[in-house]
Structure formats: C-alpha cells, structure tokens
Amino acid sequence: MISPIFLSILLSSSVQLVHAHGWLGSVTVGSQTFIGNVPNASPTGTVIRQIDDVDPVKGASNAFLNCGQNAQLASDVAQANPGDTVAFTWVNGDDGPWVHNTGPMQTYMTSCGSQDCSSFDSSDASWFKIQEQGRITPGGDWAMSLMNTGAPANVTIPSNIAPGNYLIRHELIALQIAQTEGGAEFYPACVQLTIGGTGTGTPTGDELVKLPGAYSDTDPGILVDAYSNPNADYVFPGPPVAAFVSGNTTDTSATAAAAPSSSTSTSGSCKKRRSVEVVNDVRPRTLSRVMKSLLTQE
Q1: Going by C-beta distance under 8 Å and a sequence separation of 6 or more, which residues neighbour residue 264?
Q2: What is the distance between the alpha carbons of residues 143 and 136, in angstroms, rounded to a whole number?
Q3: Does 291 have pLDDT greater than 60?
Q4: 151 CB contacts (<8 Å, ≥6 apart)?
Q5: What does the alpha-carbon distance between residue 50 and residue 75 come to, in Å, rounded to a whole number?
Q6: What is the structure's pLDDT at 246?
Q7: Does domain 4-295 have CATH number 3.40.50.300?
Q8: Which residues contact 218 (CB under 8 A, 6 or more apart)?
Q9: Mapping DSSP to helix (H, G, I), strand (E, B) and coil, where does residue 11 land?
Q10: Which residue, among 288, 294, 230, has the nearest Cα to 262 in the 3D structure?
Q11: pLDDT of 13 over the 70 cut
C-alpha cells in the first residue's frame, strides 16, 4: 500500500507537471474571439480543434504532431480576410498564462480544398509555413517567453493569399530538455478558417510538407542545447517560409514592440484573454499512466 506521505508527493508532482503543460485557450481572428475547449471535456462550438491531453507531443514522427493530442474536428469555422491578425493565446494546465519560455514558435497553413474545414481530415494534409520566430534579440529571451504574462502570439494571414478554406496551425516547441534526443516538446494547435478576398498567393510544390514528416528528432533545431550558447543562430526545423508570404514574421506582444529583432519582428498589442466566467471554470486534470497505476494499487 502506498503511504499517505508518498501519495501526497506524487499528487503534488503530478499537479506541477499539468501546470507546466497546456493548450490553446483561445484565438482571436480579426475582431472575433473563440474560446477553445478544455482538453478531454465535453466539446462546445468553437473553431479550435480540441485535444484530449495537456501533455506535449513527443517525437518528430508522432501522428499527433499534426494538430495536437488526438485532435478532433471543430464544429465551427472562423471568417477571415487576407492581412487579418490571428492572436493565439496559450494557457497552462491550470488555465493560467503559458509557462515555458525557451524555444521557437512556427505557423503553418493547409488548404482544406473545396470542403468545409469542419469535416477536413488533416492527417495527410500538405502544409506550408507562413511564420517562424525564435529569440527576440541575439542571445536574449525567446519570443515564447512573452506569453508568460498572458500575452498572445499574433500572426498575420498573408496579405496576398488565395481565398478558400484553410487550417492554420500554430506550434510551440519547448526546448528546456531538448539536449537529449526525444526531449523536445511540441505543442501544435489547429484553427479552422474560411478566407475571403481576391488574392492569388499559393505555395509551390517544394514548399509543402507533411506533419509528421517534415521534422527529424536529430534536426539541429530539435536536438539542441538551448542554454550552452545563447548567441548561436537557431536553425528552425521544417521548410522555409513560403516565398509568396510577404513580411513573413510574427507579432507577439506589446512587450516586445520596442525591442530589436534577430530572426523576426515583434510588435502589436495584448488581447484580453478570456472572460471571468471562463477563467473560473473547473479544469480537469490528466494524470500520467504511472500515477494511474499507483492510484489503483491497494
């Protein structure tokens, strides 16, 4: 039988791990804000594909690298226009501000073709990159760290993109334990859009990739010691930003607006994250397989 003291330590450790992980809590497309479903809770209408676990996706060949842990189709689709800002607000496992602060952010898109993205199976989709962001300044903090205050990561839809149905995929890669193979933590999330306008911009065939398929666990931007040489150039995994994308950078928060940039520009404004009612919702916890096994012992 597990002693009460040992069980208390295990439960405390589990809560800390859940707190350190997280999901896409909300997204603002243009002027509309959509709240994401709590992982593994009963879904409600939204444009964010719901995941079922706050834990990171581990391994570059993991099928969940596509849109997140067992991501499910969302019921709604956001209306957007070329040049709109999409503000991704990530939260931790307790619905507070994002915790991790080391690693890049990248954004991809894929066409859903003629069908509505609410019924589009993305498992074999072809993705193109529209944004990548690393450190704010050479040797300085990563742009991801700006979200520790609750600020969103703001990404601009390409101003010349062809109209149609698209998934936009935002990805955080946490590198705090990436010194060993398989240590990198991937947090992808997908949002369903219909984009209007009269643009003609599309990616070329060699700019399209599969996810998983675009990364390797030994890529220099995935198997990396992010602390030993902070002045070293970061090598983003995956393809380059598609050539048709103009100003292929991201806005992260007002905090970084005045800071010079090394790999991208940073500007924009913070968005209100979510209503008081949503913040006060009870959040389910996800225990590890080890914890579940221990708790079932007599």
Answers
A1: 131, 132, 133, 134, 143, 249, 250
A2: 5
A3: no
A4: 252, 253, 254, 255, 270, 271
A5: 10
A6: 75
A7: no
A8: 181
A9: helix
A10: 230
A11: no
**Mean predicted confidence (pLDDT) in 268-285:** 32
So what's the pLDDT on residue 250? 46
Residue among 105, 99, 91 nearest 25 (CA)? 91
**What is the spatial distance between Cα 112 and Cα 6, in angstroms, rounded to a whole number?**
50
Q: What is the DSSP string of 34-83?
A: EEPPPTTSPP-S-SBPPPS-SSPEESTT-GGGTTSTT----S--EEE-TT
- From 267, 214, 230, 182, select the one nearest 106 (Cα to Cα): 214
**In the 8-state DSSP scheme, what is residue 222?**
T
pLDDT of residue 19: 60
Cα of 184 vs its chain's centroid, Å: 14
Question: 């596509």: which residue's tokens?
Answer: 66
Radius of gyration of the chain (CA): 19
Q: Determine which of 20-34, 102-116, 155-169, 277-291 has the lowest per-residue pLDDT on average.
A: 277-291
pLDDT at position 20, please?
Answer: 75
Residue with tokens 């006060």: 280
266 vs 103, higher pLDDT: 103
pLDDT of 277 higher than 70: no
